[in-house]
Amino acid sequence: MNNILLIIQREYLTRVKKKSFIVMTILGPVLIAAMYGIVIWSAMSSISQKSVQVLDESQLFVDKFPASETFIYEFISGDLDSAKTAFKGSGKDALVFIPKSILINPKDVKIFSEEGVPFDLQNGIENAIEREIESIKLTEAGITRRVLEDAKMNVESQTISLKDDSEEKSSAAAASIIGIASAFLIYISVFIYGAQVMRGVMEEKTSRIVEVIISSVRPFQLMIGKIVGIGLVGLTQFLLWIVLSFVIFNGGLYFMQDKVMDAAQTMSQSQMEQMSPEERQIVEEQIAGASATNGVSKALGALETLPVATIIICFIIYFLGGYLLYSALFGAVGSAVDSETDTQQFMFPITIPIIASIIFAQFVMKDPNGTLAFWTSMIPFTSPIIMMVRIPFGVPLWELALSISLLIAGFILTTWIAARIYRVGILMYGKKTSWKELAKWVFYKG
User: Could you give the domains of the chain?
Assistant: First the structure.
């Protein structure tokens, strides 16, 4: 046992003290936050007013498109050919042609530009025309927009879970987001840190250092120590990432909230300016009625409906369980080959279950208590990902206990198999290994 603890300590401290670990642990969240911050800041700062010429043959829309922070419209007269000739070199962003048959066939609208027409420009012009057509048709039918808006109802339901004699609020959206995020983290960690185990074993084998090490410890102790040590490195990095991400998110929100609010206000004002007085009044009433509801408080309220403690505890259990199970197999592969190119034939069958579990997770989210969800959350090779998708929706305690027990049993079995391969393969050089050879090593006595 002391030998295993010494190996764990060595593997952990060696990797944690590396400059690459320190740099990536600190820079990882910073780089991601910086990337999103630059994208958001650039998008907000790049909003410019587009100048649009409008040739309206129908005369139904003349001076009906008010200027805004995003668009300024100039209505012109004449024929289309003359308008296109004058448009070239005018510096305008677009020329819009509205035919006489616009009410019969609204798809005859044409937008001309000296370069490609951006989607936002096309969408803004189409929306402006659509609003006016709707107003015209509503007026002809004797219906005001006020009547139409009053007929629309925004239904928001409350989801409640009935457990025993109690009622608990739930949030399907929050459960789905947290579930798939937790599953994806486990999926990524298995590949990243499992590959580190495989490369670590291969390096020690090819450098012949392992020959010196196993003179003092058993191959099984060396493999377990390496797996657990690297697993603790991964867990440490995840915890640091969570703390740093929380600090960066709150700091960024504090410094950018004024910019975000100004941009949102500018966008909402530009949209309001394109509306008729009646539409504007309706929207202002809706905003006033919804002002008491805050998006942040909604998000926090949704999180409060989740079993946060259970999710955190189970994430640690399934993170370690899934990592240990697959890392034992990765370590066995590393001991059986002499170079990374030789690992491909063995890696693919090992990674199929975890890749399949990500695919299954998409269906499990739609029916977290179905037959597929139950069985895939019991199979050790898929349970770390599938169970993390199910837990936010609520899983019976007996299913959790059974799944964790099977995962532990699966880890013990794969570790035994991996150890049998490891003890032979770690000292095998210069020989191409096959699946048949690996099977012989598992049952080799000696």
Answer: 50-151 (3.40.190.10), 169-260+302-442 (no CATH)
Say what angle helices 172-206 and 383-390 make with each other, to 10 degrees.
Answer: 160
Handedness of CA 310, 313, 316, 318 (dihedral sign): negative
- Read off the tokens for 390: 């199910």
Supply 389's token pair: 């998708």
Which 8-state DSSP code applies to residue 159? E
pLDDT tens for the chain, 446 residues long, are 677 888 888 878 888 888 877 887 777 777 777 777 777 676 666 566 778 888 888 888 887 777 766 778 888 888 888 888 888 878 788 888 888 888 887 788 888 887 777 777 788 788 888 888 887 787 777 776 667 666 666 666 556 655 555 555 556 677 788 888 888 888 888 888 888 888 877 777 777 777 677 777 777 777 788 888 888 888 888 788 778 877 776 766 666 555 555 544 554 554 555 555 555 555 555 545 544 444 445 544 555 667 778 888 888 899 888 888 888 888 888 877 777 777 777 888 888 898 899 899 888 888 888 899 999 999 999 999 999 898 888 888 999 999 999 999 998 888 888 888 877 777 776 667 777 777 777 777 65
Do 382 and 183 meet the contact criterion of CB atoms below 8 Å apart?
no
Determine the residue type at 5: L
Determine contact, residues 333/346, Cβ cutoff 8 Å. Answer: yes
C-beta separation of 114 from 94 below 8 A = no
Contacts of 290 (CB under 8 A, 6+ apart): none
Residue 415 structure tokens: 């570790």
414 class by beta-carbon count within 10 Å (0-12 exposed, 13-18 middle, 19+ buried): buried
**CA distance linking residue 194 with residue 392, whole number of Å:** 26
- Judged by DSSP in three states, 287 sits in helix
Enumerate residues 6+ apart whose C-beta is below 8 A from 32.
245
Q: Which helix (H) or strand (E) holds 97?
A: strand 94-98
Selection from 446, 6, 442, 443 nearest residue 224 by Cα: 6
Residue with tokens 């840190």: 193
Distance of CA 421 to the CA centre of its chain: 37
Distance CA 430, CA 413 (A): 28
Is residue 125 within 8 A of residue 52, CB to CB? The reply is: yes
Both structure tokens of 201: 């074993």
124 touches 67 (CB < 8 A): no
Phi, psi of 175 (to 5 degrees): -60, -40
Q: Which residues contact 167 (CB under 8 A, 6 or more apart)?
A: 160, 161
3 state SS of 51: strand
